[in-house]
Amino acid sequence: MRDYFVRSAEARLAAALRSAPVVALTGPRQSGKTTLLRHTLPGWRMVSLEDLDVREFAREDPRGFLARYTPPLVIDEAQHVPDLFSYLQTAVDAAGSMGRYVLSGSQQFSLLAGITQSLAGRATLLELLPMRLVELAHAGCLPARLDGLLWRGGYPAVFARDIEAPAYYADYVGTYVERDVRQLTAVQDLGNFQRFLRLCAGRTGQLLNLSALANDCGITQPTAAAWMNVLEASFVVRRIAPYHRNFGRRLVKAPRLYFLDTGLCAWLLGISDERDLEHHFARGALFETWVVTEALKWRAARGDARPLYFWRDSIGNEVDLVLEQQGGHTLVEIKAGQTFQPDWLGAMDTVERHMGVPARRALVYGGHLSFERARTAVIGWRDLARAE
After folding, report:
1. Range of the domain at 152
2. Rg (CA), the chain
3. Contacts of 349 (CB under 8 A, 6+ apart)
């Protein structure tokens, strides 16, 4: 059993502790937050507000809690006691030094709301998602085949323990996802929620139509919206917005839905092993989902909080990713096929014409060779491990 995987977030965490009194580390349950903090901050005290006795102590006597648990201190699942954040503000202002507290949590909106209200200007935000391709490669855990990578996903425990991916994800949904649902919203019928979750998996990489999703699940649209918010707050899914500039054309307004881990999504789709994935209808969507999440992780590792976008107009012209960067835009097209096709570049040509200015261009595909073609960096999937 492997104890630790080197994570890209290590350098960002060290830099943040030098420049801010509080660092907030968010990410899904089991993404490795606690392990990362124990490995990189061995001299720090750690306390978890998942422990009900500790949580009640922090809630009923926040000054006494901070007097007993002195910095440098990691407070895990800090979102459970949002009132504590005001007392942390007083403590860090009085101390006037950097690197005093790390707040970690797996319910992003609850944690960030407390920081925005009480610790604005005092906290640096970091996000730890399941492992990147480069992290798996450095650890010697990169699956030999793309389908194996998509099927297993990126949660550290899948690679660290002697456990099959389906067993892990079945336990993950029952132990963590459904518990978060109960904590964040009142679910009358857990069976309906499980159906909703599987229907969402079938829509990864697609435009999100909440009304149609609600109808297919047999629930109201407000319920579907509330459950979608829970999935996003728990880092199960992420909505990617369409690019907001018009360029004189009618653009779609609906976001695209992506799961933040392809292994979890594949399990929800009932894919029992990587061989089943080869001809599965969702293989292309899972590959696109993986590339989009790699882009999210790449930006998080660099401390770049700018959102990702996609571009799609009303007649179906689209590019999978639009990244705003210093000096212009980068357009990214994603294709699961193993053999490069020149016509894959046509959508980027169309979008560039509407932008009126040249853009950086990349195409990520399911093959192994990387090369330059028509001002476009064509990148085989394995070479995403070189992105730093």
Report:
1. 133-285
2. 22
3. none
